[in-house]
Structures are given as C-alpha cells and as structure tokens.
Design a protein that fits this description.
The complex is a heterodimer.
Chain A: H1 3-16, H2 26-44
Helix pairs in contact in A: 1-2
Chain B: H1 10-18, H2 24-42, E1 45-48, H3 50-65, E2 77-81, H4 109-116, E3 120-125, E4 137-138, E5 142-143, E6 145-146, E7 149-153, H5 159-166, E8 172-177, H6 183-189, E9 192-195, E10 215-220, H7 223-233, E11 264-267, H8 270-273, H9 277-289, E12 295-296, H10 301-319, H11 321-326, H12 336-342, H13 347-367, E13 373-377, E14 390-393, E15 396-399, H14 400-403, H15 409-412, E16 418-423, E17 431-437, H16 442-454
Parallel strand pairs in B: 2-3, 2-8, 11-12, 11-13
Antiparallel strand pairs in B: 1-3, 4-5, 6-7, 8-10, 9-10, 9-16, 13-17, 14-15, 16-17
Classes of the chains: A mainly alpha, B alpha+beta.
C-alpha cells in the first residue's frame, strides 16, 4: 500500500467503525498501520490453496479434545 | 531471600515449613520485607496483598499444627500478573481504564489452583497495558526495572512477574504469553519460565489479549520449582472454552530423566539470523552441554511472526473497540496509536493469517517427526536500557520494543510448549534460550531444563540489590 492508499483506507475504515481519530492520534495511527500493512503483505504473499483452512477449530458441545498430536488453538 | 537463611526456591521453603524449620507466616513476612525494601525501585508490584498473605500463611501453619498433610507448595510466597482475577481486587491488566471495573468476585483459575496447592499470595504485578508490549514501560504504573541493572527494562508484558522473581521478592510468579510475554522477560531477567501448550492451563479469570494466542504459565528460579508449579496449575476447568480436555500429566517425577534419549536439534535459519552475539553464545553453550550438533530449519518463521502480528492486531484491538471509540486518551500513550491502527485490520488479512497458521503448524509438525526438542534463542539481545528506541541486529538498527519478540512470536503462534532457560555470565546481563517441545510434551522441555541446571549451564541467581 502506498502512503496515500494507507491514509485513504485509515480515514474510510475509521469512519465506518465510528472510530473518530483525533488529529493528534492520526500520524501515529498512519505510522502503525503502515507497519501492519507491511507485515500483512508478507503473509498475503504466501500461496494458499482452497484446502488451507483457518487454524481455529469450533467444537460444539464442549472444549476441543486434543488429538495425540495436538492441534493449535481453538 | 537472605531473611530466610539461604532458602531461595519455593520447594526449599515448602520443605522447611513441612519440617518445622520455618513457619509460613515467617516466610510471608520475609517476602514482604524484601518487597518493602526494594519494590520502590523496581516497580514489580502494583498491589501487595499483605492481609491475604498473612491469613493464608496462618492457615498453613494451623494445618501443620493440627497434623494435617500439607499440599506441595504449602507456605510458598508467590504473586500474579495483574490481569489475573484476585478476589476483592480490581483486575487492572496494566490499564487505567480497568480501574472503573468492579473488584473481582472470585479468584482466577490459576490463583485458585495456587491456593489449593498451599501457596501464599503476596500481590499483583506490573505489566504492559493490556499485555501489549515487550518492555513493561507502563505510563500509569511505572516501568518495571530489571533487578540485574535498574537502568534496563525487565521485559514484558509480564515484566513485574519476572522482576519480582529475579529480585528475590517471591520465588514463583504467574504470567501470560501471547507472543512471548513469559519468555521475553524470563530471558531479560535471567530466570526460568514456561509457556505450556496452548489450551493446557485454564485462562478463566485472566484478562485476555488475543484469545487465539493467549497462554498462561509460571516463572521460577529453578527448573524444579517451575515443574512443581506447572503441575499444581494443571487440571480441568469449565470456564475456559479453549482449554483442551486432557488428563493431568505430572512432570516432577520425570525431571531426573534429563535429556535421556530425547532427540535434540538447534534451530538455524531465521532463529540464528535474528540473534545477536550473546544470544548465539547462549545457544551454543546449551547445544554443547547437551552434545547437540544437528540443526533444523523451521520453515517460514519470518512469515509466521508476521502472521502472529496480524492476528494479535485484529483480536487485541477488537477487545477494546468500545473504549477506543469512547475514551482513547485513557489508553497508555505507549500503545494507543497501535491499538487504534490495529482496530482497522481488514478481515481478509486476519483470515489469511489464520489459514497460513494451519499450513505452518503442519510444516513444523513434520520437523517433530524425528525431533523431540528444538533449541532457539529467546531474545535477540539482553535487556536494553529503559526508553531505548532501537538496538543493533546484524549491522542494522531495529525498533527495540517489537523486535524483542522476533524469536518468540513464530513459536507461540502455533501453541508449542516452551521452557526458557536462563544463562548468566556470558555478558553483563543474562539471556535465555528457548527449549521447544512438541505439543503436550512439556515434560520433555522441563527435563532438558533440569539437565542444563544440574550441569551448571542454566541458573537463576537472585540479583544483587
């Protein structure tokens, strides 16, 4: 994302979430969102297939029973 | 704890109380005296529960006098990060905002288990606001200082938990670890810490940060104390929906097995590339002591760290969205703008990170097919100075606060059990090494920690204050 894209996105998304950014907060928010976008780009560049499901499990009826090999978070 | 004639570990104190050489009230008073003397400089505690401590200690002494069998940690002083509910206290989670909440009605699951094991609660401990940091530079409650050098940070977010143990105020504390918040302060303060498998211990009554990554666990100055406490904390609890249905698997009786036939390897690649000279020296010392030459490369660790960052951003900020809307200026300025930015995380990024997480988990599990333990540095460098913004890593200046978690984040991301072992004497400050086991094999990591301690490689001396 370019700095302009970041600024446009931050302004639009914060308005949609009713997160009224004060002028004093905005520069820090832009800086932090740019860092987050940079890291997200690393994740988003990883090729996933339709078979790659999200890690969390939902277990109706109780907490997850771990298999002998264990499973990551629920 | 010099006031107790050299009794430094929790198990030594428990044995002395059981044998009548020390009363639980004397142990609590000695711990209170150390806290009274040193905490004004260290800022480990945000509240000292003096009355509760003396009442719990008195009950232990009465039980002994009545001839009742004492539980394993009877009379051992401990304290808990201030995000654990303690009946009658407000659960601050390092924040100013939570002062508006009502006091907790009952103890959190882990505090209740410690009480059941006979331990005596001395108070609540300092932390980064809402656990969002690696340095415990808390604007509301002061910076938790490193007992080995008061000009340096104790690490975070469980900084008070590590500082209290390193300073000899209490032998055992409780903390939490989402991205490294047990392992980073253990490393920087030179003590032992365990982050159990995700879902092992109940988080009921612990104020969450990023739910799909949040773990709870103890700190100590010996591997035996760590194992005894971890054992006492195990057990089912219906109040944490993420807790796995597993039987209690005690570790204390297994410690003496040491390395045995465990297959151990060192993590290369990312974990060496992001380690400074002292972290590499510590890793090398541990590998030599265990006679380990094999190296494995954990694939995509850098991406795993990035994905943990994205998940933390989305989950952590969503928890605080109402307060971010209504009262942003009441957040710690150290984290406010990060929380506000993170609240805007697109769902596509979050879901992509959660999908990558399963791919990565499966890839790391392949490594564990012929390996039981992986060793990696816990932090890139030892404790930095308070207020320091950057440190040098591989010839470049990197932002100090987030970079402290470079080596821990890719591992908690998939919930692996990890013990941090402390090494002193390689530099002016201690540093830790992560002993990483496969899921649900905490005992393996604790066995290695004990072997390293008996070999004199890992140790956690009380800081000279």
């Amino acid at each position: 994302m370019t700095p302009e894209q970041i600024a446009n996105y931050v302004d639009a998304a914060s308005a949609a979430l009713e997160l009224n950014l004060k002028p004093g907060h905005r520069p820090g928010v832009l800086e932090n969102f740019a860092r987050l976008a940079q890291l997200a780009a690393v994740v988003n560049a990883f090729p996933l297939t339709p078979e790659d499901e999200p890690a969390p499990l939902w277990s109706p009826g109780g907490s997850p029973a771990a298999s002998p090999n264990g499973k990551p978070g629920a | 704890m010099t006031a107790m004639n050299g009794l430094e570990t929790g198990l030594e104190i428990a044995a002395a109380i059981r044998e009548g050489r020390l009363s639980a009230v004397e142990a609590a008073q000695a711990a209170l005296a150390v806290i009274d003397t040193h905490d004004a400089n260290i800022h480990a505690f945000t509240e000292v529960t003096r009355e509760r401590a003396l009442a719990e200690a008195k009950a232990i002494d009465m039980a002994r006098a009545a001839g009742r069998e004492l539980p394993p940690l009877a009379g051992v002083p401990y304290a808990a990060k201030n995000l654990f509910d303690i009946a009658g206290l407000k659960t601050l989670a390092g924040s100013k905002i939570n002062r508006d909440r009502a006091p907790a009605i009952e103890d959190s699951a882990l505090v209740a288990r410690m009480r059941g094991a006979g331990a005596v609660l001395l108070g609540a401990l300092n932390m980064d606001e809402y656990a969002f940091g690696f340095t415990t530079e808390n604007t509301h409650y002061g910076t938790a200082r490193n007992p080995h050098d008061l000009s340096r940070v104790a690490g975070g977010s469980s900084g008070g938990s590590a500082a209290a143990v390193a300073a000899g105020m209490v032998p055992i504390t409780l903390g939490t670890d989402t991205n490294g918040s047990i392992r980073v302060p253990s490393s920087l303060c030179g003590i032992f810490g365990i982050k159990p498998t995700y879902g092992r211990l109940s988080r009921r009554g612990a104020y969450l940060f990023a739910a799909s990554l949040d773990h709870v666990g103890p700190f100590a100055r010996s591997s035996a104390d760590l194992a005894a406490t971890y054992d006492a904390l195990q057990g089912p609890d219906s109040g944490d929906h993420a807790q796995a249905r597993r039987a209690i698997e005690p570790t204390m009786g297994l410690l003496r097995q040491g390395k045995g036939d465990l297959r151990v390897a060192v993590a290369g690649g990312y974990f060496k590339q992001n380690a400074g000279p002292q972290a590499l020296a510590a890793l090398d010392a541990v590998a030599r002591a265990l006679n380990v030459e094999r190296e494995v490369v954990i694939p995509e660790a850098q991406r795993a760290r990035a994905a943990a960052f994205v998940i933390t951003a989305a989950e952590g900020s969503n928890l605080h969205l109402p307060d971010l809307r209504a009262r942003p200026d009441d957040f710690d300025p150290m984290i406010r703008d990060r929380f506000l930015a993170n609240a805007l995380t697109p769902a596509a990024w979050y879901v992509q990170a959660q999908r990558f997480r399963l791919w990565y988990y499966q890839a790391v599990m392949k490594l564990f097919e012929d390996t039981d333990i992986i060793l990696a540095p816990a932090t890139p460098v030892p404790a930095t100075g308070i207020g320091v913004e950057t440190f040098e890593l591989n010839g470049a200046q990197v932002p100090a606060r987030p970079s402290m978690g470079l080596l821990t984040q890719p591992l908690s991301f998939i919930g692996l059990p990890i013990v941090t072992v402390p090494l002193h004497g390689l530099g002016t400050m201690p540093i830790g090494v992560q002993v990483i086991a496969r899921p649900w094999r905490e005992a393996d990591a604790l066995r290695i920690a004990q072997e390293l301690e008996l070999a004199g490689v890992a140790s956690a001396p009380v800081a000279k204050l």
